[in-house]
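In the current project phase, the collection of sequences with tokenised folds has grown. One resulting record follows, to show the layout:
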Amino acid sequence: MNGMDHSKMNMEETQASSKTTNGQTVKPTVLTGKEINLTASVSNQEIAPGKTLPVWTFNNSVPGPQIRVKQGDTVKINLKNQLPEPVTIHWHGVPVPNAMDGIPGVTQNAVQPGQSFTYEFKADVPGTYWYHSHQDSVNQLDRRLYGSFVVEGKNEEKVDRDYTLMLDEWMSSGEMSGMNHSTMNMGHDMSMYDLYTINGKSGSLVDQLPVKQGDRVRIRLINAGYLSHQIHLHGHEFKVIATDGQPINNPDILKDNVISIAAGERYDIEFVANNPGKWLIEDHGNNAAIKGMKATIAYEGAAAGSDKANESEKLAAVDMSRYGQAGKANFMLDQKYTLEYTMNLNTEMKNGEMVYTINGKTFPETEPINVKKRDTVKVRLVNNSKTDDHPIHLHGHFFQVLSKNGKPLEGSPMMKDTLNLKPGDEYVVAFEAANEGNWMFHCHDLHHASAGMVTELKYTDYKTDFVADPNAGNKPE
């Protein structure tokens, strides 16, 4: 497969009209350069030994190809839709112009079967990001329409190995077809996701990560699923060098901590391969599915190591609110802001259905945050749900996390685009309104978004020339 450009392959068996295909996915590739072609089509993927499920793909792979671009490049991505349903691409975490954000009915019309759309933007901010469909996204992500997106920094230190692990959860029954999550009254039961994967594979099918002694190794962890995962690197000291693609100032050395990574978040870790053998990087927890979310770091020439899985062991999670070293920050807790806003997040029953609310309302009734360009905005996020995490994602902007549960952050200034609130958590974040448009601000457990937990950040002085087509079937969440 090496060097084959899947974007040029003609997937004849995937006709837009057909809901099923006999096709099998191929191994994901890495696409570089300033023009990229992505084709969305139907296929099948073996995700665990003997377990093949129908999938929707970009370029016939799950995950879709990794797109790697250089900081400062203007990149063109041509999307061709060969699926039976409309689709879009959202560039999660990438500060793109509003018209390129991929939100059906807000920034563009969903791309119809047989149609194409070109995204074009300048990749200014280096880091680890990802892309995914934002059309009926709870269902389309569960069909696996996603891939990783890396912007290589002009001045970033080189590493010897650079691996990306996209984490996800699947239903082994393959019951996706026609399932409407938004009307399912699932309460808090996510146990239907009974297969956990790394890069679309579970258990023994997960690719090994080869290293040589002395290598500097970077691992980019991306959570493309809806559940938090507690990732543990065995046998090595490591640092968390970035969160949501943004660097951590002077990161501390860690050992035998887990990194808690919530839906939509990214964490980059780095370690020196100085302990030959075969070592696991694995999810920790107490359900059976986590056993599938393991990869092996394999030193060249090492015999089978003596490392043992210990996924049920309780290990302390890295406390990112006290991690790294304080440094120059964009915002302070006690400065004056143009606008202050509180988002109370909750789980409620309305008309016999469970809904997820912001300040007691569900989208599109939620009140938008109205700003003007260059406003400074302070947002208090409060999770009043009793048992639900809410990973909140802001499109088009990074925000600085200022405090957690009333305590100012002690460590490195932390810039993020996705922040997980556990039940009872309260965070204060701040950002500058520096990217005009109409932007989504929502929970990235997309079951919660589709059941109401969405608002918008709207620039009152922004005029869009986008006109929504009532026949496009736009479903922004």
About this structure: The two ends are 35 Å apart (CA to CA). The chain is about 0% helix and 40% strand. The first strand starts at residue 30 and ends at 32. The CA atoms of residues 75 and 260 lie 32 Å apart.
